[in-house]
Amino acid sequence: MFQDGHALVTADLNRDGRDEIVAGYRGRGGGLVYYAAEDDQGSRWKRYDINIGGITAASCAVADLNGDGKLDIVCIGSATANLVWYENPN
Description:
Elements: E1 5-11, E2 20-25, E3 31-37, E4 45-52, E5 57-63, E6 72-77, E7 83-86
Antiparallel strand pairs: 1-2, 2-3, 3-4, 5-6, 6-7
């Protein structure tokens, strides 16, 4: 369950020309998810879990951290007191 949403960022993570939505939350153990449009009109979205229970995402940023040409996600956790780099496998 997505509870106490806190982190929000958009970026073209899969390089299809459209931004995905990255959202983090702090409630119920925390987590990080992203939503990608399933159609060209953006009327249907699919949720993908990135990390459930491992981070209480308070803030996130998107950048190519390792220079491979793909956008990665980095988040800081409040109650989990961690900083996590999510390398983009696409």
